[in-house]
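User: Hi! I'm working on a homework problem where we have to compare a predicted structure to a textbook description. Could you give me the structure for the chain below?
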Amino acid sequence: MGAVKSRTITSADVDADEQLQHPHPHAHHHSMRNGHQHNGSISSGTLQKQDLRYDIGCSSQYQHVRQPSLRSRSQQPMPTTDELDRRFAKVLASMDLPPDKAKLLRNYDDEKKWDMICDQEMVQAKDPPSHYLSKLRTYLDPKASRSHRKRKMVGESTSTQVLRDLEISLRTNHIEWVKEFLDDTNQGLDALVDYLSFRLQMMRHEQRLQGVLCASEERLNLTNGGDGGEMVMGNSSSVSPGGGGGLLSHGNSAGHGLANGTLDSRQQHTMSYGFLRPTIADALDSPSLKRRSRHIAKLNMGAATDDIHVSIMCLRAIMNNKYGFNMVIQHREAINCIALSLIHKSLRTKALVLELLAAICLVKGGHEIILGSFDNFKDVCQEKRRFQTLMEYFMNFEAFNIDFMVACMQFMNIVVHSVEDMNYRVHLQYEFTALGLDKYLERIRLTESEELKVQISAYLDNVFDVAALMEDSETKTSALERVQELEDQLEREIDRNSEFLYKYAELESENLTLKTEREQLAMIRQKQEEDLTVMQRMLQHNEQELKKRDTLLHTKNMELQTLTRSLPRSASSGDGSLANGGLMAGSTSGAASLTLPPPPPPMPASPTASLAAPPPPPPPAPPAPPPPPMMPGFSPLGSPSGSLTSTAPSPPHAPPMLSSFQPPPPPVAGFMPAPDGAMTIKRKVPTKYKLPTLNWIALKPNQVRGTIFNELDDEKIFKQIDFNEFEERFKIGIGGALRNGSSGTEVDGSLQSSKRFKRPDNVSLLEHTRLRNIAISRRKLGMPIDDVIAAIHSLDLKKLSLENVELLQKMVPTDAEVKSYKEYIIERKDQQLLTEEDKFMLQLSRVERISSKLAIMNYMGNFVDSVHLISPQVQSIAGASNSLKQSRKFKAVLEIVLAFGNYLNSNKRGPAYGFKLQSLDTLIDTKSTDKRSSLLHYIVATIRAKFPELLNFESELYGTDKAASVALENVVADVQELEKGMDLVRKEAELRVKGAQTHILRDFLNNSEDKLKKIKSDLRHAQEAFKECVEYFGDSSRNADAAAFFALIVRFTRAFKQHDQENEQRLRLEKAAALAASKKESDQVLMRNKVNQKKQQQIHCLHDFANQQQKQLVQS
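Assistant: Happy to help. Predicted structure tokens:
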């Protein structure tokens, strides 16, 4: 709301208004108040809605301050600080100031506080409220003018002076005086409003007479050509439309002025022209007007305009405190009278009225009150449109009054722009626009008054241009639609760009994979070439060694032959065979000892090396038989000294020793010094047992170069550590020791080692648990990823079952997983290294809107089941509600329960007109005196005895059992979920313009939308039926729960049946007990009879025996 300013009317304005210079006995009271009213004020500035206190009558500068004399100050010494604070708090309480002003006064020093206390204590109300009210009621009494006592009570003071005194008392006296004036005993507000209404009727009557007179004078002027028109019109030309004043507004008695002076002259003037005005004469000579004129003259009443103005000031003084303000707001007639005071001729009075109305309009509920008062103004003044008279004063003024213009503009600002409802604000704005306000504001917009400029700017700044708003709304709608289209287009472009990026990344990855494979093949080729070179060098070295050994062997053989020939012939002939055998054996043994060592193991996966390796040597020759013992003195060959004589005999079976002639064995191939740049081939370590495998990632030989592993030698560790205990502790299986010589095991081990060395480990970007769940779900899915993606794109529930759809919804990659896969692709890593589950997830992450599509498929698959599940629940609630509401028997049962309840409670709590159904549960808790039965037992027994037709009342309650198990809130939520799913299907159908997928979606929409509409309609009817049912049984439908409500009915029905059965069971037991008791009693009677009979028989027997004895005695 724009800035709304108001002016503050000081008390000096009232003295100057209408030149009312009346002495007042309470003048010193008026100067005392120092501007402090009972409550806050409407000060210069912006009016706010929360301001409930208005200082309408005092100056914001506190100009009227009475300074006590030095003598009075000296006579009243200042008390102590505590006493000063206590008395000052009492003064503030009596002033009833707003918190902000009270806080300002508390900050005064002690001297100022004491001055205020002295001034306040000097104020004494001279007259009680009844003094003024009795005079006002005397003026209102039509018989008062004929009563000498009442005329004497009024005195010589005019009604205007009485009102003036009342206004000063209301403004200057304590708040208690004002409350006493307004209390129920005095009813001062009613008296003041009644007097104001009376004077307004007088003023309006005078205005109507003035209007008739002016119209007649105008007709005379037009008839006579305007001669003497000015003389006849007199001062009437200065009366504004609807303005006050008139013939009856001058002097103490308007009737005297009209009858004695003005009327006679005008009648003579009129008669001179030969025209008569019977209507005016009749109106002026009417008995009511004469009686009213005599009443005014005898009671010395003032002018109506003056009384109205001062009455408005009195109302302003009452509204200066919260108590009075609330009373004025609640008094509709008071507001109507204030609004009707706008017809007053004084612009200052109009401005005062508008300020009061603006102040009321700002409080809560005041806006409606003000508009109602102007509706009343329209009816009373017979306006064609509301605010018409106000706008006439505002636009067609005779004399420019800035205060009135500002007040009027401020009032219109508040009336229009203090409404929160935009549509209502536009309606109010149009009312003033239709009266020409907008055009007029454009004319006076450049006024010189700053205050008026502020109000005009505030109004124009807050005006709603509906056409511009509509244009903006349409532009906004089209812009939003365009934005949505662009967002959809951008989303599609982003999806296509993502696809291109994925494809590009795939191609880059494949290219990188090919480059890596090519580099690996080149490295393998280089390694194989290096191995081939090493093997060739080794082969050459072995060939040279063989040649050297052959040469050495040939030399030794020649030496042996020479030595043989040099032996004596006898030895040669005698032992020739032996010598030859020994030499042959020695030769054979030497040959065997000079054979090549076994070749080194072949290089793993090196076909070239295996081809270049030398063939294995032939098996060694069988050993010769042991030679015969040598002759004494003959030293064997191969002795270290090489001499032929020796004194030590040799063992008889010692084999020939040719160790001195054997060359050193060639180095083992694994330990042969390799050429520079070649890796040493490690030997396989044989084990006795099968050991577990260490799952490490081994380095390739070409990856070891330049690392620390190139400097390590683990062979020496094998010699330092005893691995037997290690094998015993870590062996696996019970198959025993491994065969070290098995060629098949060696080959398999080498191949497995080679494969494990070369195979790269799979990489997974998923968390372990997630990876395991995906693997399980993927096995359950049992479909290739391409078929899955195709089914998702086509929304085909035939290819992809509903179970698989729900399974895929759990497998949809999360945002973090999609991001990790994107980063993996962008970094051009090998996709083949990913696990099958990661590859599956990667393919799923590339499907556009996969979550939305799966949700649509799930919705389409479950729609029929959902409808079939929800529809019976809705029907059960509707049926149960209607049957419960229409059941006559249940109604009769409740009536019986109400009767019993009132019978129990009427003495203590009084009779009840009804009860809530929750009370049915308490029927079981009310027990009888013997605690053996409850109130419900008795009610059921009563119904069975008196109203047996009501025993089966549950037969009229259809579906309550089912309805008790239905939560209406859950049903509403399910239907809302169905609506959301249908919206999702519609949106997907709009995105897919053509294609088979669109056909599937359209068919689904055509078949399902009507079902959804029907179930929505059924749910709405069920809700209405349940609401009516709950309210019908006296409960609130706001927080009612269908399940709890019908469960209450079901519990009561079951309890009723159970208690009926218990009553019947009790009756059966009682009958059985009574029958047993009666039978027992009859048996007892029979027993007593039998006993008595036996006694009688015994007695008879005794009598007979006695008689016989007597007879025998007599005979004897």
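For your comparison, note the following. The radius of gyration is 63 Å. Residues 1-75, 226-284, 570-677, 735-760 have pLDDT under 50 and may be disordered. Good luck with the assignment!
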